[in-house]
Amino acid sequence: MTLVEILTICVLLLTTLLIITTYKLYQFSMVIIRTEDAIEECLDVLDERYGSIASILDIPVFFDSIEVRRVINDLNVCRDSLVLVANKLTQNMRDEIETKEES
Known about the structure:
- The protein is mainly alpha-helical.
- It has one domain.
- It is built from two helices and no strands.
- Helix 1 packs across helix 2.
- It is rod-shaped, with a radius of gyration of 27 Å.
C-alpha cells in the first residue's frame, strides 16, 4: 500500500466521520430549539395563569367559611409555585443577561 492510498483512505474516513458528526449536531440542535420553544410556551402559559390567579386573589372575600379560606390559601400557594417554576426555568437566562450587562 502506498502513501497516497493510505492518505486517501484517511481522508475518506475523516470526511465520513465529519458528515456523521455534522448530521448528529444538526439533530441535537433541533432538539434544543424545540425544547426552548416548548419552555417559552410554558412560560407564557404560566404568566397568564399567574395574572389570572393574582386578579382573583385581589377580589375581597365576604364569606368567612373555612373551605373558602382554604381555597384562597391554596391559590396563594399555587401562585407562589408558579413564580418559583418560572424563576427556575429562566435562571440561566437571567445569569447570561446579567453577565452581558456587566461586560
